[in-house]
Amino acid sequence: MDNFIVPNSNYTIKEWNDSNQIKYNQAYQELQTSELIQDESKRFSNEIHISTIKTHLDVNKKIEQRIDEIQFWKSELDSQFLETENEIQNLLKYQKRTEAFLKMTEVPLEISKQCIKNREKRISIDLVYDDVEVQLLKEVEIIEIMRVKLTKTIAQVVEKIRLLRSSNYYIGKDIADKFSALKIDNYCYTINSDSLPLQDKTSKNISMPVTPEVWEYFSDKNLRKAQQEYALSLSLRSKVDEMLHNAFECLQNQSELVNLALSKRIDETELAKKKFQENLSKVLVEIDKMDDNINEIQCAVEENDAPLQVAQIRLDERACRPNIELCLDRVERKLREEVNEIKNNVIHLQSMMLESKMSLKCLLSQKLTLEESIAIKENTLFIDRDQNLLLRKQIVYEEK
C-alpha cells in the first residue's frame, strides 16, 4: 500500500464534459457567426456591386452632362472668338482707310497754303481780301480740323483693336482650358474597370476647385465682355463710315467753292484787264490825235507869222507918210484890225496849244496808269490762273 501512486487529477468528469460542451457550443456559434457573416458579405457585396454600377452609370451621365455644358460654352466662345477676330480684321481695314484719307489731305493742305502764299505776291490794288482769300483760308481751316478728327479716329480704332484683342486673348485661354477639360472628361468617360490606365497617383492640380456657378460666370463674363466690345466696334465702324463720308463731302464741296471763287475772280480780272487794254488802245489813239492836233496848231501859229509881218510892215511904212497924209483912213483902220485879229488868233491858237499839251500830258499819264493797271492784272492772272488754278488741279479727293 505504501507503493500505491495517487493520480494527479485537477478536473472532474463533469468539468471535462462541461469544457467539451462549451467548446462544442463555441464552435457551433462560430460556425453560425461565420455563416451569417458570409451571408451578409454576399448580400452586401451584391448591394455594393449594384450601387457601384449605379454610381458609375450616374457618374458617366454626369460626365456626359458636363461634356455637353463644356461643349456648349466652348461653342459659344468659339463663335464669339471668330466674330471678334473677323471684327479685328475689319477694324484693321478701317484703320488703313482712315490713315489713307489722312494721307490724302496732305497734298490739298499744302496746295491751299501755297495758293495763299502765292496770292500774297499780288501787288497794289489787287492785293485785296476777296472771296478767293476767304474760301482758301476756310479750306485750310477745314482740312486742319478734319486732320485732327481723323487722327483721333485712328487712335480710337487702334484702341478698339487692342480691346478686342484683349477680349479674344481671354476667350482664347478659356477655349484652350475647355478644350483640355473636354479631352480629360472624354477620356474619363472611356475609363472602366476593364481598362484601367497606369497613372501617377500624385495630384496634378493643387488649385482649389471652383463651383459650377463660378465656372459658368467666368465664361459668361468673358463672353459678355467680348460681345460688348464687338457691339461697340460695330458702332465705331458705323461712325467712321459716316465721318469719312461727311469729311469727303465737306472737303470736296469746299474745294469746289474755292475753284468756283478762283475761276470767277480770274474772269473778273481778265475782264478788268480787257477793259484797261481797250481804254489804253483808245488813249494811244487819242495821244496820236493830240500830237497831230498840237502839230496842226503849231503850223497854224506859224502860218500867221507872215501875214502878221506883212500887216505890221504896212503899218510901219504908212506911219512914214508926211504931214497931213498921215491920215487914219480906211486902210489904216483895216490894217490895224488885221494886226489885232492876227494877234488875237495867235493868242487863241497858243491857248489851244497849251490846253492840248495839258491834255496830252494827262493822256500820257493815263497811259502809264493803264499800263500799270494792266501789269497788275497780268501779275494777278499769272498768280491765280497760271499758278494757283494749275496747282489746284492736283487736288483730287477719293471717298475711302
From TrEMBL:
GO terms for cellular component: axoneme; microtubule cytoskeleton; nucleus. Signal peptide: none annotated. Microtubule inner protein (MIP) part of the dynein-decorated doublet microtubules (DMTs) in cilia and flagellar axoneme. Forms filamentous polymers in the walls of ciliary and flagellar microtubules. The keyword Coiled coil applies. It holds the Pfam family Tektin. Belongs to the tektin family. GO terms for biological process: cilium assembly; cilium movement involved in cell motility. It comes from Hydra vulgaris (Hydra). It is found in: Cytoplasm, Cytoskeleton, Cilium axoneme; Cytoplasm, Cytoskeleton, Flagellum axoneme. Keywords: Cell projection, Cilium, Coiled coil, Cytoplasm, Cytoskeleton, Flagellum. This is Tektin. Residues 259-293 form a coiled coil.
